[in-house]
Amino acid sequence: MSPPRPKAGGGPKAGRRGAGRIHRDRPDPSDTPDSEVRFIQPFQATKTYLCPGCNRDITPGTGHMVVVPPDAPDLRRHWHRGCWNNRATRY
Ligand SMILES: [Zn+2]
Is pTM, for the whole model, over 0.85? Predict the structure, then answer.
């Protein structure tokens, strides 16, 4: 019942290593370059999130993206993988 949850407050550049499968997708130049984008594996998704791309739920067990703004790690957003990719090409 305790998924690996990075501690907020240290900032994304705290140099966390080996904290699991942090997968960095190719950064999109149109998005904030400093935002940290991670892929949440299906087994790591244990809660329901609201995707800002389509305003629908990301149900538990769904692999998705999480985007962490460098200045506000508490404001990280969870996206469907497809929504994130569409957003990247749309803007
Ligand atoms: Zn979505």
Answer: no
